[in-house]
Amino acid sequence: MEDGELDVEAIAAVMGHFGNMFSNARTSPPCPVREALRSGDRDNVLKLIKEGTDPFAYPTSFFGLGEESTVFHEASSRGDVEMMLAMAAEPETEWKGRFLLSVQQVVDSPSKGRSCIPTATGSSGNFFMFGQGLSFEGLEILMTYGYCLKRRDFEGICGLWARDPPKYLRMLKLCLATTKREKLNLNSCLGLAIGGAHGCFINGRQPSSLELAEILLKAGADPDGYCFQGNTPYDFTPALFQALVNGDSDMATLLISYGADVSKDAQMSEWTDDDELDVEHVSIQAKAEEVGMADILCNTEAPRTADPEAFFKELRHEMSGPLKLAVAEHSAILVATMMRCTGCSAPVGFFSKLIVEYCPLGFDLWKVEIE
After folding, report:
1. Is residue 337 part of a domain?
2. Which residue segment(s) compose the domain that 342 sits in?
3. Do 239 and 224 meet the contact criterion of CB atoms below 8 Å apart?
4. What's the N-to-C CA distance of the chain in angstroms?
């Protein structure tokens, strides 16, 4: 091609990429390991991973066009524990028996996970963005190998609660039992539990859940916290006010029972035709009278006091049940190991260290003390 001539093929390629990007039937670059997983060719998946394919990579092409999930996401959505463990394993690492809470049994697992797992992320800052590929098995395996749970992960679980409460209840309890409270955005999630109409929700409305709201309140969510429903970013909607807007008397009663302040105001706003912000303050009492629920505010009972630490301890005790049974089943092996290493009795901390190796997340659920 001489100077000044147009490279027609290059221009066509660029236009093709743009056309594909904005097409309803857009295609992604070929990904052998993804195709093998979808076709059920497990041996080929393991072979490709062993040869160096990164199951946590987002395959992309020109202008970032590509799959919106990783191969690990697909394995997680299927609940395929064996495949996820193979994907999470650091190459050439040792494998040993580990107890997984999700399957409640000991499975052959890698001793060390991939170095990318602790910082694994997606376009929204968390790995399971928008709940994509989210499963109890996938979440536990990532956390076992060092994944730092993001607030958006927890919000995703709460936001998807209405689809399948029993499924997401297990994940919620795992997060609460093993993650420090300050790392979880409990107040924002309470807003999701209260629900209501809002443009950012699918179909413009988030279903409410009384069960989820009570769990979050027990965990320390502020009953006076502000929901994010509103017409502009300048709206401030107290949780109780939003429950009244929804006409949800049960939710309003629950919030008041945990000490929600009935004297608070909501700040409502909207943009005028002149692009000015029109702000209005509406009291909770006024809204309750408007929707015919003023009698709910007259609760004379003493509010319940949330005790997050006691609640988390209760959760850990509940979730540690399968682990305790498994340890009891293998107690002879554990005792023999301790005696072989020490000659007589176990030193303080040895058994605890063994539990950490046996079930990393389980140590947070069940702290073993040796007298």
Report:
1. yes
2. 320-365
3. yes
4. 83
Counting the structural domains of the chain, the total is 1
pLDDT tens per residue across span 243-262: 998 899 999 999 999 999 99
For CA atoms 219, 224, 230, 236, give the dihedral sign: negative
In a domain, 253, yes or no: no
Residue 256's pLDDT is what? 94
What are the per-10-residue average pLDDT scores of the chain (371 residues)?
A: 55 54 54 86 90 82 53 91 94 87 87 89 69 86 89 86 87 88 86 72 66 95 80 77 91 94 84 76 90 87 87 82 67 53 47 60 47 28
| Lookup: tokens for 290 | 């408007």
Tokens of 95: 């494998």
